[in-house]
């Protein structure tokens, strides 16, 4: 793939990730979001947030209250200062997701003290779709953003190409 990707042409009702801004934008989301692990629904909400950034499918954040009791467990190292840094949102802390005997390690993250522009995300939880059984938005099962590093969720109403595919390192 070339270093300058050619955006896919959006169809009716679709949005192109190439029309998303950089730096990213935070927007409220009203609609159904679910997360399943170990054959159980571990999170469900009718409201959340989307982070929209050029070349990335949206990353969805759910209110902490959307997760069942015992589902979120501080990931090893999180309490000792192991975190990652986002130039836009700040320091992220991680959770393991737990459903019965199934554990998805470091499959969720939050910003406990995000930057001012992302303050509404304080304590909200994002999930790596590739690390759980299933995530849905408005009933549609999402595909995880390619590459295993980014947390975007791909639905039929977003077009790419998406950051994370082979050759996209320089985007």
Task: Tell me about this structure.
It holds the Pfam family NTP_transf_9. The chain is an all-beta fold. The chain has one domain: Metal Binding Protein, Guanine Nucleotide Exchange Factor, Chain A, CATH 2.170.150. It contains no helices and 14 strands. The strands form three sheets. Strands 2, 3, 4, 5, 6, 7, 8, 9, 10 and 11 form a ten-stranded antiparallel sheet that branches. It is globular. It starts with 14 loop residues before the first strand and ends in a 12-residue tail after the last strand. The model has no long low-confidence stretch (mean pLDDT about 90).
Quick recap:
The chain is an all-beta fold and 171 residues long.
Q: CATH H level: which superfamily?
A: Domain of unknown function (DUF427)
Number of helices: 0
CATH architecture: Beta Complex
Global shape: globular
Query: What Rg, in angstroms, do the CA atoms define?
Result: 16 Å
Oligomer: single chain
Question: Percent range for helical residues?
Answer: under 10%
Largest sheet descriptor: 10 strands, antiparallel
Would you give the CATH topology?
Metal Binding Protein, Guanine Nucleotide Exchange Factor, Chain A
Q: Give the N-terminus to C-terminus distance in angstroms.
A: 11 Å
InterPro entries: DUF427, DUF427_sf
Pfam families: NTP_transf_9
């Amino acid at each position: 793939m070339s270093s300058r990707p050619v955006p896919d042409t959006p169809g009716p009702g679709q949005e192109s990730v190439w029309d998303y801004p950089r730096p990213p934008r935070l927007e409220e989301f009203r609609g159904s979001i679910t997360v399943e692990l170990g054959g159980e629904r571990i999170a469900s909400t009718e409201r959340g947030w989307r982070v929209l950034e050029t070349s990335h499918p949206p990353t969805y954040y759910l209110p902490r209250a959307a997760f069942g009791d015992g589902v979120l467990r501080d990931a090893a190292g999180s309490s000792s200062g192991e975190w990652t840094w986002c130039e836009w949102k700040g320091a992220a802390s991680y959770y393991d997701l737990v459903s019965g005997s199934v554990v998805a390690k470091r499959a969720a993250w939050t910003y406990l003290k995000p930057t001012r522009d992302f303050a509404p995300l304080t304590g909200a939880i994002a999930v790596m779709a590739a690390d759980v059984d299933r995530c849905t938005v408005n009933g549609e099962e999402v595909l995880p953003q390619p590459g295993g590093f980014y947390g975007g969720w791909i639905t039929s109403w977003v077009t790419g190409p998406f950051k994370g595919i082979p050759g996209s390192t320089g985007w």
